[in-house]
Design goal:
It contains ten helices and five strands; from the N terminus they run αααβαβααβαβααβα. The protein is α/β, with parallel strands linked by helices. It has a five-stranded parallel beta sheet with strand order 2-3-1-4-5, with helices on both faces.
């Protein structure tokens, strides 16, 4: 019976009630027998064995059904998108780049990061660009880069925190793509951005208050995005799958309205 437990572990499934029932059934098989007739013990062992097999099959099937549903949701979204780019917007630290890579992987799309593309075009990192040219000039260059990138189909594009706030850039996104706001609580955002020192807008005497002020300023504009997804300390794959579900709902509602 250890074979079944090995299969559970190999599949990497989370512990469920089926697993608990299996463990109890296994204990019934392996525990010392109580005084009883030989025939009764044989019948009890047979019943326990069949029950173990049944719960294992149900457990494995539930995982296969979940995988099948995920594939169906992905296929449905790809048909609805028909090549339309997906643009991820939101605050610094929301996970746009990390989640974007996982989302692109699920959808078999190319992943692009607007900040990385800006750095490549300018020949310097974002922090140096801010220092040398200022934020206003940066936003002008950012709008041009986003417009160029959105000429491509079948991409997932992660944008900088201020990109969607800029009206010119936002209009480009609204015209050429479907936008997804990845929202996150302040404490999570601050914990993440505090791990890095390359956030030019947070280089202030009180970065915590600066981040709060940016949230107050930007969230009303982020709400203009087509789709909203709230993230927390969960695997990036989880957020990517939530985005796929939210986009399917968005396109479904859109088709019903037309």
């Amino acid at each position: 019976m250890n074979f079944f437990l090995a299969q559970f572990e190999a599949r990497g499934k989370p512990i469920s009630i089926s697993h608990v029932l299996y463990q109890r059934s296994l204990a019934l098989l392996t525990s010392p027998p109580l005084p009883a007739s030989r025939d009764l013990l044989i019948q009890t062992n047979k019943i326990a064995h069949h029950f173990c097999c049944l719960t294992f099959n149900v457990y494995a099937l539930s995982g296969e059904n979940a995988l099948s549903k995920a594939k169906t949701a992905t296929q449905r979204l790809l048909m609805a998108l028909d090549g339309t780019p997906i643009v991820l917007v939101g605050m610094m630290g929301a996970g746009k780049t990390s989640v974007g890579r996982r989302l692109a992987h699920h959808l078999e799309r190319q992943f692009l990061d607007s900040d990385h593309e800006i750095e490549a075009a300018a020949g310097m990192n974002i922090e140096d660009y801010f220092t040398t040219h200022g934020e206003k000039q940066f936003r002008l260059g950012e709008a041009k880069v986003v417009q160029r990138l959105l000429e491509e189909k079948n991409i997932v594009l992660a944008t900088g925190g201020g990109a969607f706030i800029n009206e010119t850039t936002r209009q480009i996104i609204e015209k050429k793509a479907v936008s997804v706001w990845i929202n996150a609580e302040f404490d999570l955002l601050f914990a993440r951005v505090s791990r890095k020192s390359n956030r030019p807008l947070l280089k202030t005497p009180n970065p915590r208050q600066t981040l709060k002020d940016l949230i107050d300023q930007r969230y009303p504009t982020y709400e203009l995005a087509d789709v909203h997804v709230t993230t927390s300390e969960v695997p990036h794959d989880t957020v990517a799958n939530e985005i796929i579900g939210a986009l399917n709902l968005y396109f479904n509602n859109k088709s019903q309205q037309s």
